[in-house]
Amino acid sequence: MKQYSRIFQYLKAYKGKIFLYFLFTLLSIIFSIISIGMLMPFLQLIFLDGQGITSTSSNPAIQYVNDFLYTSVSTNGKIYTMGIICLLMVSFIILKNLFLYLSYYVLNPLKNQIVNHLREELYDKVLRLPIGFFNEKRKGDLMSRMTNDVGEVESSVVGTLEGWIRDPMTIIVTLTVLLLISVQLTLFILLLIPVLGLVIGRVTKSLKKHSEEVAKKYGETLSTLDETLGGLRVIKAFNIEKLLRGKFFKSNDELLTAKNKISYRRDLASPLSEVMGVILFTAVLYYGGRLVLRGELLEASAFLGFLGIFYNIISPAKALSTSFSNMRKGAAAINRIEDVLNTPVTVDDNPNGKKIDSFQHSIEFRNVNFAYGDAVILENINLTVKKGQTIALVGSSGAGKSTLADLVPRFHDVTGGEVLIDGVNIKDYSLHSARNLMSIVTQEPILFNDTISSNIAIGYQQATEEEIIEAAKIANAHEFIIKKEGGYNSNIGDRGAKLSGGERQRLTIARAVLKNPPILILDEATSSLDTESERLVQDAINNLMSNRTSIVIAHRLSTIRHADEIIVLQKGKIVERGNHDELLAQGGFYKKLVEMQEVR
Description:
The protein is α/β, with parallel strands linked by helices. It has helices at residues 5-12, 15-37, 39-47, 60-76, 78-128, 131-136, 139-157, 161-181, 183-204, 207-230, 232-237, 241-293, 300-341, 401-406, 431-435, 452-456, 465-474, 478-482, 501-515, 531-545, 580-586, 589-597; strands at 362-372, 375-386, 390-395, 416-421, 424-425, 438-441, 519-523, 549-553, 565-570, 573-578.
């Protein structure tokens, strides 16, 4: 039950509702048993024809029934007594179903709330996990955990939550009543029940393993689908539809096979438990019937009442076995969710961190090292970026430029040394306030399926319409925006699909302008644009960088000729530094890069 500990933790917050559910369920079970137990006086009244009603019994429960019948028949007659019994049966059935409804009324919102908590906690954890986590995980697999696995927990575990409580309670209360009627027969039942549990347990044993396989294959199909939707242009251009179709169909067929294996095992549990239940009932019927015929046990009417109450166990026992198999199946989904929830957050907010409201004088990398696993990405970086400076990072692909820039907003944390803002380790600041000083413009524009206005204002949501328009003008975006049919209220589609590359990039610059941060991190935003769009975007970037401290990751060296200092990285180390002219004069690696791009 260890894997269900998170669900039990959620339940702790609802102790009052759980108590009410226990109470209503218990009352429902009691009235259900009493309503069935009313068969005993009814049968005794019909079949004994008045004889034996005054007989004594060593069983207090049966003697109570005898006394009731004797008093009622003597006072009011048999017909009246029969009417009273029938009326009591109906009343108890009504009460049973009333309390059953009340138990559902309490429990169902509770089940929905548990799933809601789980989904929110999972999404919140995804937001807090470091960027490096998503470099290793496939997006489709994460989406599968947040959708398919949460859905599996909802249906297989939380959906059968009442079975964890109601069915065991029904069995326990019913067995208690059966003990009051006949200890010998009840002990006979208790000897046979473990056989049922053993058989069902063997059938459901492999459900967890098959469920893990289903979840894995489901994640693979989602990943393939995500890659297909994101790369349709390339797929069609290279005529690889057949390749992708084969990949998806293979994963889908393997998913089908795994799901069928689960279905075979899960669906066997219910009919098997019913067969075992009938065998158990028949064994009790035969064994008890022999005792009654020999006069060794109890009256025939009491035995029939015993059987009626005992049959009340069959349904919850069957439901309990189904719940058990569902829980086995859901355990795999919980484990996959727990993998994400228990992933350590290596970059987390400092609850006691200082709040920084303004940037005063410098960003400093002091003896910085960064490794990801066994791979060393940055080694012994010492660099100071003074307020108002523009620092450019250049180097070969994989040299560590993006990683170095990512340390400033704490997308990663250093594994050695420290990053300081205004002389204070960035870890000593509150994460939110430190990031509030920065804006980032990436090479690939990241936009959301919303209006132009909402995308510009996403980092400063209290902005007025005039402020949004002014930011768009600075970013050279206003002209194309007003030509749209909806203007600033135009929806841009998924990831800005309704806009050109240059238009998307200018929106991200407008977003950065509106936030008005003192620190900018620019991953060369013009490298994938045509000449006209590049000029418009570069002008917008120049406007954005005015009077700000900027760290620029440069791919096109022509864009960083006027940087205050150019840092040349190679294999995670600073190999050259200086301005454009100084580095050319050195005749080193930077000069080779310039000559290759023919920017002189």
